[in-house]
Amino acid sequence: MQTKASTRNAYLIPYVLWMVLFVVAPVLLVVYYSFFDVEGNFTLGNYARFFTPVYMQMTLSSFWYAFLITVFSLLVSYPTAYLLTRTKHKQLWLLLIILPSWINLLLKAYAFIGLFGTYGLTNSLLEVVGIGTQQILFTDFSFIFVSVYIFIPFMILPIFNALEEMNPSLIYAARDLGASSWLTFRRVIFPLTLSGVKSGCQAVFIPALSLFMITRLIAGNRVITLGTAIEQHFLVTQDWGMGSTIAVFLIIAMAIIMFLTGSGKKEVRNGKKRKAV
């Protein structure tokens, strides 16, 4: 038993080193730099500046757009994942959905610039239909559309897995008891796949909070988020202290979201334990 325990601990060493070097250490560095101003002097002024109207507006904007991206991703992904579980070659279709996520994000952003541009394919189709050229690029619509497109695979996967793990006999039982399709979905399917929905929302909402490349290329900096502010402070103004301060609050927000969306798994485990007792 001692040999097995020592072997198990030896296998944990690479994981612990990875976590310390690439998770704990960067977070500590960000917290450390947040206490210094642009001239390198120790200060708490960065945290005071964060609560000014400008940064509060950025925070609200970041959460609002992240919320919209998550909601639209969920509305598209849940029916798609449900249909995938009913198709014959579901693994192949799932692979086709995942494939675009292997393409570089910058390449996909430039592809949408070509599609939504003034002389792009979308405006060419609108000209044929008779609507005329529209300003699609550098708008909220284009930003949300491209963001949803990018994040959809990360929402579909956990929902698909949750649907696959669900016992189909429960659906048959609900139908036998006279439940309609909508009632079956609302009372049986959705509650049983809620863990997948939470995981998908977590996988989309958290990175959507810190988007900055898409806001620049697709939204044309009309959409200002905390991710954009961090990029500006680190690369333009060279105010690493303020950029780190914003990053600290983003980390705190992400930790809170992970805690809230992860509570459902604990409840499921506790419920299983109670049943076992």
From TrEMBL:
InterPro entries attached to this UniProt entry: MetI-like, MetI-like_sf
Stored CDD domains: TM_PBP2
Q: What is its main location?
A: membrane
**Per the record, what is one GO cellular component?**
plasma membrane
The reply on keyword RNA-binding is: no
What the entry lists under Pfam families is as follows: BPD_transp_1
The UniProt entry lists membrane topology as: Multi-pass membrane protein
Q: Which residues form the ABC transmembrane type-1 domain?
A: 59-261
Kindly list the places in or outside the cell where this protein is found, as annotated in its UniProt entry.
Answer: Cell membrane
Listed transmembrane segments: 12-35, 63-85, 92-116, 136-160, 204-224, 244-264
Name of the protein in question: Spermidine/putrescine ABC transporter permease
